[in-house]
Structure formats: structure tokens, C-alpha cells
């Protein structure tokens, strides 16, 4: 690229960062502190998404002392954690996703027993999940037949179980395959764990005749899955 091209890209980046700082500066509480960070590590960002995220994050940060935030923001591991939040926010397509990210930042700052490195890991787990998988993860908080009716009704378009049979249409087969992949992905990430059918007479696991694998009766959240739900704001522990 010639010098003119370099100059154009530099000007574009400077303009984006300037606009981003202006957006952050409007946030009444933590805006100035966040503005200092944002110019450091957010080039070529989606300004509209970033602005919405910052407003949500600023709202959550009002519960902290400004002196505490200033001290924490100056720590390398905290700055790295915040940077991950900003990076994901510029790609977040929905308000729900931005709220999840802001919730992890809030909980990461307030937690006394979870380090910033560990909180960043939770952010990365969140990024690995699509919106449908997050809904399925939350579903496993109460997997009983009549459990959590309000949540299931709200997300019935996602949570409606699809069973493939010999007479299923291609659309049904496709939906079943996708639904199964969500569950498999959650299990691979260590967020849910299977419970297998057991023969009542022998006490041994029952096996699927086609796959040869143990039959799965149901899934429950792992400790990691429950922690992630808590950090993204979809679950509160009973005190």
C-alpha cells in the first residue's frame, strides 16, 4: 500500500476512535475511564454496537466506587479482560448478547474468588455459544417435564424438541440435526453432562442398538455451566 493509502487508513482509524471516545464520554459514570481504554485497543470497530454496549456497561458500573474502578482498570489482567469485552461487543448482533457481555464484566469486577483471567475464560466460553445454545444451556437449569414454564414459553420457537423418524421431512431432519449439535457442543465445552438410562434389573447402562453408545436419559448443568449462567445474568443463586 502506498503512503496515501496508509494515511487514509490511519485517518479512518483515528476518526473511528475519536467517535468512539465521544460516545463513551457521554456515559455519565465510568465513561471517562472507559474512554481511556477504548482508544488503546479498539481499531476499526462497529461504533453503533460499541455505543450500545458502553451505555449498558456504564449503567452496571455505577454500583462500584470510582476509585476502585480506576485502580482495577490500571491492572494489566483487568485491562485484558475489559479488552475482550470490547472486542466481543463490537461483533455482538443483539442487545441480549451485549447484556451478557456487560454482565460478565460486572461480575468479574465484583467477584472476590474469580480472577480476571478466569472471568476472561468465561467471556470466551460465551463467545463460543450462539444465541440458541445459550437458551438451551439455560433450559438445562430445570430440565424437568413441567419445569420453568415461563422461560420455555418465551423461547418455545427454539426449545420445541424435534424428533427424527423414518417418516420425517427433510426440514424436520435438518432441525433435529441442528438441535442435536447444540447439545453436543454444550457437552464438549463441559457446560452440561449426560445421565444415562440404566436397566432396572441388571443395574447396567442401556445401549442404543444403532449407535452402540449408552442411551442418554437427560442432561444437567455442570458446575461450569451454572457458573457461566450466573455470570451472564441468567441465573441467581438462592441465598
Outline:
The chain has 239 residues and is mainly alpha-helical.
What report would you give on this structure?
This protein folds into 2 domains: 3-128, no CATH class; 131-231, Arc Repressor Mutant, subunit A. The protein has a two-stranded antiparallel ribbon. The chain has helices spanning 3-26, 31-41, 47-61, 66-73, 76-89, 95-110, 116-128, 131-139, 149-154, 156-159, 170-188, 223-231, and strands at 192-196, 216-221. The mean pLDDT is 82. Helices cover 62% and strands 5% of the residues. It contains 12 helices and 2 strands; from the N terminus they run αααααααααααββα. With 239 residues, the protein is mainly alpha-helical. The longest helix is centred in the first third of the chain and has 24 residues, at 3-26.
> Rounded to an integer, what's the Rg over CA atoms?
22 Å
Helix coverage percent = 55-70%
Beta-strand content: under 5%
- Summing up helix and strand content along with how strands pair, one would put the structural category as mainly alpha
Number of domains: 2
Alpha carbon gap, first and last residue: 60 Å
Number of strands: 2
Oligomeric state as shown: single chain
The dominant shape is: elongated
Largest beta-sheet characterization = 2 strands, antiparallel
Average pLDDT rating: 82
Low-confidence stretches: none
Q: Quickly count the helices.
A: 12
Order of adjacent strands in the largest pleated sheet? 1-2
Order of helices and strands: HHHHHHHHHHHEEH
Amino acid at each position: 500500500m502506498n503512503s496515501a493509502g496508509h494515511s487514509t487508513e490511519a485517518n479512518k482509524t483515528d476518526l473511528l476512535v475519536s467517535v468512539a471516545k465521544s460516545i463513551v464520554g457521554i456515559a455519565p459514570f465510568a465513561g471517562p475511564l472507559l474512554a481511556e481504554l477504548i482508544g488503546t485497543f479498539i481499531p476499526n470497530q462497529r461504533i453503533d454496537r460499541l455505543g450500545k454496549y458502553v451505555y449498558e456497561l456504564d449503567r452496571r458500573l455505577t454500583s462500584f466506587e470510582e476509585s476502585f474502578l480506576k485502580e482495577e482498570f490500571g491492572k494489566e489482567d483487568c485491562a485484558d479482560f475489559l479488552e475482550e469485552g470490547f472486542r466481543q461487543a463490537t461483533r455482538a448482533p443483539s442487545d441480549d448478547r451485549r447484556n451478557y457481555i456487560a454482565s460478565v464484566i460486572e461480575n468479574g469486577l465484583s467477584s472476590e474468588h474469580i480472577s480476571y483471567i478466569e472471568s476472561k475464560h468465561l467471556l470466551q466460553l460465551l463467545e463460543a455459544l450462539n444465541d440458541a445454545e445459550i437458551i438451551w444451556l439455560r433450559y438445562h437449569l430445570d430440565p424437568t417435564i413441567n419445569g420453568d414454564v415461563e422461560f420455555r414459553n418465551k423461547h418455545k420457537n427454539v426449545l420445541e424438541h424435534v424428533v427424527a423418524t423414518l417418516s420425517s421431512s427433510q426440514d424436520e431432519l435438518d432441525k433435529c440435526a441442528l438441535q442435536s449439535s447444540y447439545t453436543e457442543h454444550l457437552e464438549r465445552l463441559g457446560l452440561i453432562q449426560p445421565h444415562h438410562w440404566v436397566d432396572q434389573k441388571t443395574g447396567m447402562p442401556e445401549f442404543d442398538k444403532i449407535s452402540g453408545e449408552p442411551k442418554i436419559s437427560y442432561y444437567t448443568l455442570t458446575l461450569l455451566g451454572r457458573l457461566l449462567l450466573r455470570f451472564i445474568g441468567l441465573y441467581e443463586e438462592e441465598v
